[in-house]
Amino acid sequence: MLNEWIKWVKSNFFNRTGRLREEAFEIKRHNVNIEKEPYFVAQAMFTDIPEILEVERTVYDGQTPWDRAAFANELRRKFDRLYLVVRKNDQLIAFIGSSFDDRTKRAHITNVAVEPSFQHRGIGAFLIEAIIKKAHHAQYKTVTLEVRKSNLNAQALYLKIGFEKTGIKERYYFGDHEDAIDMSLNLQKWRGGYDGDR
After folding, report:
1. Is the pTM higher than 0.70?
2. Where are the domains of the chain?
3. Distance, CA of 191 to CA of 174 (rounded, Å)
4. How far is Cα 177 from Cα 194, in angstroms, rounded to an integer?
5. Cβ neighbours of residue 149 under 8 Å, at least 6 residues apart?
6. How confident is the model at residue 2 (pLDDT cuts 50, 70, 90)?
7. Where are the alpha helices (DSSP H) in the chain?
8. Cα(163)–Cα(107) distance, rounded to whole angstroms?
9. Residue 16 banded pLDDT, cuts 50, 70, 90
10. Is residue 161 a contact partner of residue 194, using CB atoms and an 8 Å limit?
11. Distance CA 82, CA 25 (A)
12. What pLDDT sits at residue 191?
């Protein structure tokens, strides 16, 4: 009897974060309006990887910082990784990746990219806030990310959403060894930063 009660307590109280995260990861493929333009949002699948790599190439001057194997490894981790893609007229134009750590209650945005001809339309902000909302639903404490020191536009967006600069990782990026700025969002203070049309 006591063992059954202990099991019930563990499953109903100690695993609450895990259950909330699982709920947050339940993504339905759906249409959204971002700044009054219609798009289609879905959880990334293995079949999306070639198009994700193509978005990377257009954003990073022909380079792919993450290769096919890296994305495949991430997408296999259904328990603690969440990747979303945005399509316009069936073309994949943006994606975001994130990791979720139930132990630390921290979500980390691993990568986000928007095809250059679709930038400055609120799509990046929409994706970042989607991950923030998922972490908030799971009752996480923080969302973190790194951004290139030279990427002032991205830094301005993250600050507008509510992130704060928390440190520098020197020579962080592969290839050119540019420094990265660590940024963090306290979810207990977050009230929603981007006010675009959903």
Report:
1. yes
2. 2-140
3. 34
4. 31
5. 168, 178, 179, 180, 181
6. low
7. 2-9, 16-24, 49-59, 68-76, 123-137, 152-161
8. 13
9. low
10. yes
11. 7
12. 74
Average pLDDT, the chain: 87
* pLDDT mean over 39-47: 96
Q: Which long-range contacts (CB under 8 A, 24 or more apart) does 187-190 make?
A: 187/132, 187/135, 187/136, 187/140, 187/141, 187/142, 187/143, 188/141, 189/162, 190/132, 190/136, 190/162
What is the token pair recorded at 87? Answer: 């399509």
Read off the pLDDT band of 143 (50, 70, 90): very high
What topology does CATH give the domain 2-140? Aminopeptidase (3.40.630)
Q: What is the DSSP string of 47-93?
A: GGHHHHHHHHHHHTTT--SS-HHHHHHHHH-TTTEEEEEEEETTEEE
Q: Which two tokens stand for residue 40?
A: 């289609």
The two tokens of residue 88 are 């316009």
